[in-house]
Amino acid sequence: MENEKNNNGIKIITGILAVLLVVAGAFAVKLYNQEKDTKAELTKEKNLVIANLREMNDKYDVVIEENNLKDTELNEARDRIQALIDDINEKEVTITSLSRYRGEVFKLRKERDFLFAQNDSLRGSNRLLAMRVDSTSYELEVQRGVGDSLSLENDKLAERVEIGAALAANKLKAVGVIERSSGKLVENARARRVDKVRACFTVPQNRLAEAGDRVLYVQVVDPSNNILGANERVTFEEETITYSKVSKFYYENTALDICENIPPIGDSFEAGVYKVNVYDQATLIAQTSFTLK
């Protein structure tokens, strides 16, 4: 009788363990499927962002080709779009980076509307006006989003305000200069004579941005891939940049011309191609290059 009771107890325990194993297996499968669905949704949204950027790039190509435009703000804007496409393709998309990329798409569309409106007289038609994207279309795009799993719903308003207030940098130009004893700067392309690199750009009008003290980061990379100037790092969330100089200024919602002078590493510059980038926090907003002989 006692053996029979023991056998019954073992059977009960065995049954309970079997049920627990089944439940644990089902839970593991559910978690795996959720992770797979999230990755698939992220990939889908990444492809949508890239498609939107390529569509904008194509429209810039049409306007630039039809008007035979060279070295204009339209060309610079198109280059920034291509740079963003390359950046997205090179990196693995996360919830945070996808949110930032969607914000960049909106900012680039707003810039496109402004630049296309400036060139509307060259087109002689109203076709450009149809490409304007207002806040309503942006709201619909955000709502499509990546679903509740991306937790974007609570940040929509703050994100729109931040994107709309972002600064841009246009007409970026960099040259080598000789610094006279009088303080006068003379442009020169000979590496052995140049004293500093002078980078100049324009911060355009932005009626959505608040007036106040602002900061941009100028980065100059020499032919040996060294960062000139301060060569210091600054981190914004998950992104870190190394800058040559911090450009501090007071912004009053009107166009502002800014120039920064960056010294060499050591006593002289080497010959070759120099790259110049301007960042708003960790976001690349302008880039150019020049050559010293």
Keywords for this entry:
293 residues; alpha+beta; Immunoglobulin-like; 2 domains; 4-stranded antiparallel sheet; 45% helix; 25% strand; coiled coil
Question: What does this 3D model show about the protein?
Answer:
This protein has 293 residues and is an alpha+beta fold. The protein has six helices and ten strands, in the order ααααααββββββββββ. It has helices at residues 2-67, 73-90, 95-118, 120-123, 135-144, 156-164; strands at residues 170-179, 185-187, 196-203, 212-221, 232-236, 239-243, 245-251, 256-262, 272-280, 283-292. A four-stranded antiparallel beta sheet has the order 2-1-3-8, with no helix packed on it. It has a four-stranded antiparallel beta sheet with strand order 7-4-9-10, with no helix packed on it. It has a two-stranded antiparallel sheet with strand order 5-6. Strand 9 (272-280) and strand 10 form a beta hairpin. The protein is globular.
How large is the count of helical segments?
6
- Assembly context of the chains: single chain
Q: What is the averaged pLDDT score?
A: 75
Number of domains: 2
Radius of gyration: 27 Å
**Cα-to-Cα separation, first versus last residue:** 102 Å
